[in-house]
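Field: COMPLEX_INPUT
Field: COMPONENT_COUNT = three
Field: RESIDUE_TOTAL = 894
Field: MODE = joint
Values follow.
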Amino acid sequence: MRQRLIRIVTFIGGLYFFLRFVLPGDINGFQFARYNHEITNGFRAIGALTFGLGLINILLVHGSRLLFRRKGWFTSAALLFGLAFMLTVTIGEWLASARAAADADRLVMLREFAARIVADEKAGDSDPPYATRVALLLKNATLEVERVDQAARRENPAGDSAVMRGLRTELHAKINGLRGGLETISAGTAGPEALLPLAQQLSDVAATYRGILIEQHRAAVVSKLYTLLSDGLFMALGTAMFSLLAFYIASAAYRAFRIKSAESALMMTTALIVMLGQIPFGLWLWDGFPDVRMWLLTTPSTAARRAIEIGAAVAGLIMAFRMWFSVETQSFSRGER
Amino acid sequence: MAVEHATLGILVLTLCMLLPVWVGIRRTRQGHQLFVRRIKAVDAVDEACGRAAEMGRPVSFSSGLTGISPVLYACLGVLFHVAKKAATFRSKLLVPQNDAQVLAVTEDVVRDAYRESGRLSSFDPKQIQFLSDEQFAFAAGYMGLVQRERIGSAFLLGNFAAESLMLAEAGQQMGAMQIAGTVNPEQVPFFICTCDYTMIGEELFGASAYLTREPVQLGSLYGQDRAKLMWLVLILAGTLVATWNSMGEVLGWPVIPNLEQLIIWKAW
Amino acid sequence: MRELHRRWIYLLVALALSVPLILRVSVPPARMRAADRAYDLIRDVEIAPHQIVLMAFDFGPNIKAENGSQAEVVLEHLMRRRIPVALFSLYVQAEPFLKSIPEKVASRLMAENPGEVWRYGEDWVNLGFRPGNFLVLQSLARSEDITAFFGKDAFANRLADIAAFRNAKTVKDIALLVEISGLQGMLELYLRFFRAEGYVPKVVHGCTSISIPDAYIFLDSGQLSGLLEGIAGAAWYSARLRKEYPRQEADEAQILNTSLGVAHLLIILLVIVGNVVAVRSARRGVAQA
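Field: COMPLEX_OUTPUT
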């Protein structure tokens, strides 16, 4: 039963994507791929749930090793500690940055509101009335500007970095400009067109305030810790691992590149020409290496690569159809459980 | 020329590729023997498993960076065979993983292999270890695993990127017998330098059929080759048509519609 | 002559790579015709006021040496020509480079040209990392308003307010795509999905050295208009830039290329030595037998 259900779901899933490719974009007004983005995101979300599987596996393997003090338990303990620590720091950093980003969103919402008022006024939509909406906008914008001004003040500006000082100065100037704009609107003499510059001012203040929040967030302990772990440790380790390739390539070349036949001699000569055509020192020997290299890459190499790619693509396509019709799973999953 | 959507021409070509597969599967199910040329790397699979068993050392099987894709299913066919051998010889099988989705599928396949060998009680889910989905963290984990466990044989089949040389070199330094197979042509030279046997491109897809002799897989192999022949004929025909047309421009010969029209025929 | 233990090989490689870097040795690079095509295209491209160039930085710190250098030289060329550039990435590890590389290039240009200013929002805009892989490209290609599609830049500023981007409407307003990546399959994604009905933008690609044979397939078929082949391509592109815009600062791309060239020579030497040792060992073995 389980296998049958899996086959049915697999077939339906594959059928959607196949029909999406095959059917025309528009069939008498009906668009088959109308919800493609949402459906594909749904599949990806299901795939993302398997993230938990990896975590469970790590806990199973290393947790049992640690609990029963098996060989290598200390290394497993280090791994689990690192995992827990990194998870904690990442979640903390994510929450803090989300809070920081959200703080400036209210100004952006007010900006959208102002733009909407202008648009509705041009379209002749007067429900609710223009004056009511403008009054609401002014009230909320004034409150928000005061809140942002208070939040962005610092008791001890001497502790600020040059960037932060610049941002605070900029914000102060923009807030003053915004206050002037709000006063102009409050006076009631300006028309709806005056809301557009106000909207731009709100947007400018939001951008600068967000800059301050980002700088504050960067100076926070959790952000510094995250940066240290991700950029200083994780990325650096990955780069160090990648750099091992240079050494391995050299030792593998020394060990394995042997001229034992005519074909290997031809291969070695070709490799030599390509290498000399790419490095600056090849020009010292002969000026023509780059052009010969280009011909080798454009003609014989491309032909061979295309042959391999076509072969693998055809095989992949046929395998994909076998997967779609669940013909493949019969080979290594015999019978129902 | 950009083709955003299927056309009738593409559907016809796809059916032409699938028809030989269907014919091949039918023929093998009816009992016809299909010739499959020998692939040295595939012949060596049993030898590698036996060698590890004799030395009393584990076997490792890695599908590299392969996600859920046709390539994975090609690898799983070989994994099923290797797992059965490991179960039969009572060798420890290690299957380090890079992708959590693949982990789930792989565990099922290995369990099924052990069940089919009658050694389900020997199966330990901890054999299939998730290392990391980060490329070089996975490579570091694999290298450490190979050296700690002192593996006797290693299988490296699937999609690989820059970490391929690291994985293969780790096994090579342990003196393990290594069999590799990848559809990534740029990694093939690294495997050839460091592994005992290497499968290139579609040989990986054929390996599973070769080992299991399943009618479906053998039939697909038959169909794949016929499909490639079809493409070869189309490429030759296209080359001749293009040559004729370019000479015709100078010599005034009639122009033959090129094969691009076949692809975009009846676009809707 | 005995077999060389690998520890000596590792030491030689470390010296071959590090000594030229420390001494900052720079040798004129080999001529790269594919990079010439990229340079000529960017030199001659005419951008209408509503158009923009899209640069995709799809590389991480691991391949920063090659792809980062390529990104810098191409971005410098575009900035010198005052062509507005939008930067984005489908790869999360590229996010810091979307900020650091244009800032580095802009500050270098401003130091070189006092009185001239290169400003964020006017000369470049950072669209940040966009999750979704090919979905983003598919949706972008079908979008009728790419400003609305992207919405905000990496700093949450509305793109409609940003001078460099606000006039671009559809993918047809992206005059050129510069795709810089060493990731497997990334270029194919762009070539497959970054197009609209009846419109295929010109694509310049920057790849790592190992991906060069793969990229040549697309260069040969005309799907790529130019190609920067690893650090060698970046070094040649940089050499051409220096010829047209002479500057005093040391050329990082050429220094890296020189260092790599020395390592290549070492590998050639090791292969020759390895073969000599193998032949002599075989002869000694035959003689003893």
